[in-house]
Amino acid sequence: MNSNKSLGSRFKKSWDHGDIPMWLMLIPTIFFILVMSVYPFTWLIRYVFYDYNGFKAYFVGFENFKRITGDGIYWNSVLHTFEYAILKLVFLLPLSLMTAVLLQRKRFGSGLMQGIYFLPTVISSAVYSLIWYFIFATYNGVLNAFLQRIGVIQQPIDWLGSGKTAMAAVVIVAVWGGFGNYMILLISGLAGIPSDVYESAQIDGANGIQTFFKITLPMLGPVLKVVIMLAITTAFKDYESILVLTAGGPNNRTHVMFSYIFQMVFGTSRAKTPLQIGYGSVLSIVSALIVGVITILYLKISKKMDDIS
């Protein structure tokens, strides 16, 4: 009884101290979280047990879960997701870091170059992917025309229609569209490194390479860890540009987890299969778990690296 009174008195005291404005400001955020996150998730959970095409829902129990075990296209898309993410990160992170180091110094034109490199981040991925779709076009594309003109190739290459080049093409577009965002984040981290540290290194006779590995990278560590985590989660969730460029083709070669899920739930102009929202809901949950496991593994590895250092 006394504990209830104490809780009530503390609650009353918190309101007396002016928490009403705080809660009023939180109401819009709480509302949008409920509407945009909680409700869609509960809706998703409901239809995992149904065969639902957007009009009629038929209860199928655990059939959707059984189906996923034998869905070769989905599990291949999981492997393609890892391939796509690894290739993207291998090129994206070093390019972002190198560009940030070169442009973080206040030189003539550095601000303009930062704006140019950051511009793809502002543009919708669907828009710039459509531009790249025409660049990669087989017979009237800019890339094939240029390579033929300089004599590198004799016949046009089907960049997006060949299983040998399609994944490389979508990775190029992903790196081009994403590295400017991480470049800006790294530049902000570099700006926080005191200049007197570099001056001391120069006095001690350290060259540029030694300064980079002994000072820049260690002091950029906290920002770099966040950038890597954002890059990993984004790479595993990418699908918009793939849908525009290849729609998962050719022969499902560029299907990643979420492009396949999008095709199941919403359909595409190139997909002839009916909508399978219930099955897509199951795939969404499994894919979210995969991304969650990868994120947790990265956080544990980065924590162990901190403990070692």
Produce a short descriptive summary.
The protein is an all-alpha fold and 309 residues long. The protein has 13 helices and two strands, in the order H-H-E-E-H-H-H-H-H-H-H-H-H-H-H.
Description:
- This protein is an all-alpha fold and 309 residues long.
- 73% of the residues lie in helices and 2% in strands.
- Strands 1-2 form a two-stranded antiparallel sheet.
- A hairpin with a 4-residue loop joins β1 and β2 (57-59).
- The mean pLDDT is 85.
- Keywords: Cell membrane, Membrane, Transmembrane, Transmembrane helix, Transport.
- It comes from Lacrimispora defluvii.
List the helices and strands and how they pair.
Elements: H1 2-16, H2 20-46, E1 50-52, E2 57-59, H3 63-69, H4 72-103, H5 110-122, H6 125-135, H7 142-149, H8 166-191, H9 195-203, H10 208-237, H11 240-245, H12 257-265, H13 277-308
Keywords:
single chain; 309 residues; mainly alpha; two-stranded antiparallel sheet; 13 helices; 2 strands; globular; ABC_transporter_permease
Number of distinct beta strands: 2
Please outline the major beta sheet.
Answer: 2 strands, antiparallel
Q: Per the principal axes of the C-alpha atoms, what is the gross shape?
A: globular
Approximate strand percentage: under 5%
Q: What's the total helix number?
A: 13
Strand order of the largest sheet: 1-2
Measured between the Cα atoms of the first and last residue, the distance is: 51 Å
Q: What is the H/E string?
A: HHEEHHHHHHHHHHH
Low-confidence stretches: none
Main location: membrane
Keywords: Cell membrane, Membrane, Transmembrane, Transmembrane helix, Transport
Protein name: Sugar ABC transporter permease
Subcellular location: Cell membrane
